[in-house]
Amino acid sequence: DPQHDAPETLTAQAVIAQTTAALTAEFELRHGRPAGGVWSAPGRVNLIGEHTDYNEGFVLPFAIDRRAYVALAARSDGLARVSSTFSDDIVECALTELSPEVLAGWSAYPLGVAWALLAAAAEGENPRTPDALPGFSLHIHSEVPIGAGLSSSAAIECATAVALNEFWQLGEAPARLARIGQIAENQAVGAPTGIMDQSASMLGHADAAVFLDCRSMQTATIPLGLAANDFEILVIDTKVSHDHATGGYADRRASCELAAATMGVYSLRELTPADLPRMREALDEVTFRRARHIVTENERVQETARLLRTEGPQAIGALLDASHVSMRDDFEISVAELNLAVEVSQRSGAIGARMTGGGFGGSALALIPRALRESLEADILKAFRAEGFARPDLFIVQPSEGATMTGAHASPGEGASE
Ligand code: GAF
């Protein structure tokens, strides 16, 4: 398989192998026992389709080459015991005591997933209750920058979900594990987010985006053709941090629900550009603009997927640009730093550019010819300096594989002690 000999694939695999080894050593230090296995799941960049997921619309994200890793080993005392490289704390809870109410802080991500998986396991044809499943020790390390709009939380949730799914032999399919991650995020973390981020993290593929219909939950893999066109995707992390558990995100979601209720539809997915005149009559000015973003964005996502299939990435620039304008002016989730990143990228030769993710901070993406990378980066840094903005982080992302086991040592159940 020539794919497997591509230098980029080898590099990505080497990185994963190295991180897996480091994590295994750290697991032993923190938990005093060998890890049974290591799993990982990527962050994501959304190419296009923002705030459409919870409106049952379309999204087109891809998994990136920055991952969260979890190492896990069995325990025989019925406890979930979690540690991470972003805290000195080790948090413990009996499996039978896990519930959204007792979870807080960083540990709500992995323990929220454990709780949501246990709840799923207790239902169905072969119900298994928490007292019938072994406890575990788990250690997390993540390369996905936090607060950058690259779904660091979904990466942790999905890495934990694949690990526990395998450890407890629950046999849940990837799309179902994405939903488990979302339930953890909604109920244990308290962020009213949609299904996009966890779907991208679970279902991503190298050099492809994940087209997802958030109503039918049907997915399609859309080749991005970046390397073949000498294109790259540059991420501009503005360092303006956001938090979807508070403020603007929930407010936008409420506007969408109001618009759907006023229009007499179950979700804004059911409306098309032909409905816009009717919407303008029925909705107040702000709610109309919020809903118009969703309606037009759904069109842009489908058109982007179509153009990627028929013409390739050089054809999608105008759609990326239009998506940004819609988020800036209609949905109003952009900030000055994101607008600047997008404008400078466009001026300096990007095919297209837009903010990505939930908004109010985080990152923008620019689809660029590889040869322009250096000059474009210099232009962006210069413009940010001139505006007195914090120095953004600039990096290339590679569309990558979704959640997976990345290192096995023994079966995670083996060598259980305690
Ligand atoms: C965040 C949410 F988690 C996603 O579900 C999605 O709504 C996105 O914002 C906006 O498109 O990443």
Automatic annotation (TrEMBL):
Q: GO terms for molecular function, please?
A: galactokinase activity
- Every GHMP kinase C-terminal domain range: 307-379
Keyword set for this entry?
ATP-binding, Carbohydrate metabolism, Galactose metabolism, Kinase, Nucleotide-binding, Transferase
* Domain Galactokinase N-terminal positions: 26-73
- Top EC class for this record: transferase
Look up keyword Transport and say if it applies: no
Which InterPro entries does this UniProt record tie to the protein? Answer: Galactokinase (IPR000705), Galactokinase_CS (IPR019741), GalKase_N (IPR019539), GHMP_kinase_C_dom (IPR013750), GHMP_kinase_C_sf (IPR036554), GHMP_kinase_N_dom (IPR006204), GHMP_knse_ATP-bd_CS (IPR006203), Mevalonate/galactokinase (IPR006206)
The organism's superkingdom is given as: Bacteria
- Residues of the GHMP kinase N-terminal domain: 117-204
Report if keyword GTP-binding is assigned: no
Report the EC number(s), separated by commas if there are several: 2.7.1.6
Name the family.
Belongs to the GHMP kinase family. GalK subfamily.
Q: What is this protein called?
A: Galactokinase
Task: State the species of origin.
Answer: Subtercola frigoramans
